[in-house]
Amino acid sequence: MLDTVKLSIPDYNCSNADWDLTVGNINTRTGATKNSFPLYHDGEQWVEGMRCVAKNELFHLQLSAKCQGNAKRPTPYLSINFEVPKVAGGHNFHPATEKETRLAFSEAQKFINSVGIKCDLREAIPSRLDAFRNLLTEQPPSQYDCVFQACRATRMEDRTYENGWLYLNGQKQLSFYDKRMKMRRDKHSLVGIPKFVMRGEFRGTKKDSVQRIYGFENVNEMLKNQDHIATTYIDSMSNLLFRHTPDDVEIFLSNDIEADLRAFRDAGKRYWQREFLIAYALRGLLDKVSLKLMGEAIERVAGNRTAKSAFIREYEQAKWGIEFLKEAEKGKRTTGQLYEELRDKVTTPLKRGAKKFVKGSVYVANHSAAVAEATARIQRARRQQAAEVTQTEAENRATALQKRPKTKHICIGRNCPTCFPEYAGRAARNRTTGG
């Protein structure tokens, strides 16, 4: 569940630390140093600068000056940030298990000690927590843009970026993006990655907001209550974005109507609003009754054939619009259906033991959710194909029986092999033996 974490380390000793010091900006005219603060004491004197950094491919440790709380002067602030799944398994696609999460924090402690800093990471305060979930969608993630265009997160501003949507305020963020596209852009291997996968993230971006949302005072409490992170993720997504009930889904249908309206307008017709209304009305009407029966009903009510002819002409003029609506509806899912799919995938509680994570392996391990879903999809397709074949064979047999020529049968009594097949063998034996 955890992705990126940032930890604030309150108690530490870095007198013998081995890291890179960035000095402040120097004014070439006066020689004065700007943005330079006392960072730590090396045993002889205070070391001043903008920041001290120690990092590798997995961890980023930084000491800088920051005004904390109501303080007016900046004080040294030590923090470390890393991606839990990447430390645990070499990548950040699959979530880490509880055991692997504790292992990732142990590796972070070892890295801090290797730099020469003495501290207890269990007492560090989480200042940023990103929880995520991989959503295996039925369609390309770009098809769900209409859902995010219609949804508004509570007290959050919405923004779009290259391959996703972002809702944010000063305390937290909700992010949805095409994970496969991001991995391709970052030049990661796509072996074993599902074809359609969307990443949904809930981010607490401030120390106060993390404590208020999760209730964790330090890392030790967080590691002991990892189930609470998954529960909080579902509750936050449900309350902030996916808070609509199935009865409210109809409000999203206006987006689909708007797309059809644009298509009629772009067709260049002068009275495109009128043609849109006629096509929509006739489309729904002809779903219930055929054109022929509708014309006959109009003729009976009006008492003449002129009204029927006028209806047929009206239909011929609106036929292009009706055909357009039929083609647009083929395989198309409404915004409400797409919304319900995402809501169910985001808010469904996680099942324990559904995935076996192999450390250091390629992206999809045995018994992963992606493999299970792909297997189920193949089995459903095979069952459907078998049912279609069976139905086709039955129809072919019925057609063959109907086309078989019927011959007139003359019954010869109990010895008739057609009417009494059980006596056919006995009659033949009697004729042979003369019995």
Structure characterization notes:
- The protein has helices spanning 84-89, 98-115, 145-150, 179-185, 207-214, 219-224, 226-240, 253-266, 272-286, 291-302, 305-329, 335-347, 369-403, 424-433; strands at 2-9, 20-22, 25-26, 33-34, 37-41, 46-49, 51-55, 59-66, 75-83, 125-136, 157-161, 164-168, 172-178, 197-204.
- It is elongated.
- With 435 residues, it is an alpha+beta fold.
- The longest helix is centred in the last third of the chain and has 35 residues, at 369-403.
- The termini are far apart.
- It has 3 domains: 1-123, no CATH class; 124-243; 251-336, no CATH class.
- Mean pLDDT is 77; it is low at 353-368.
- The protein is 44% helix and 19% strand.
- A 10-stranded antiparallel sheet has the order 2-7-8-9-1-10-14-13-12-11. The protein has a two-stranded antiparallel ribbon with strand order 3-4.
- Helix 8 crosses helix 9 (272-286), helix 9 (272-286) crosses helix 11 (305-329) and helix 10 packs antiparallel against helix 11 (305-329).
The percent range for helix content is 40-55%
Global shape:
elongated
* Largest sheet composition: 10 strands, antiparallel
Mean pLDDT: 77
How many strand units? 14
Tally of alpha and pi helices: 14
* Number of domains as seen in the coordinates: 3
Q: How would you describe the oligomerization state of the chains in this entry?
A: single chain
Kindly provide the radius of gyration, computed on alpha-carbon positions and rounded to a whole number of angstroms: 36 Å
Topology order in helix (H) and strand (E) letters: EEEEEEEEEHHEHEEEHEHHHHHHHHHH
Strand order of the largest sheet: 2-7-8-9-1-10-14-13-12-11
Structural class: alpha+beta
User: Beta-sheet strand percentage?
Assistant: 15-25%
Distance separating the two termini: 89 Å
Stretches with pLDDT under 50, minimum 5 residues: 353-368
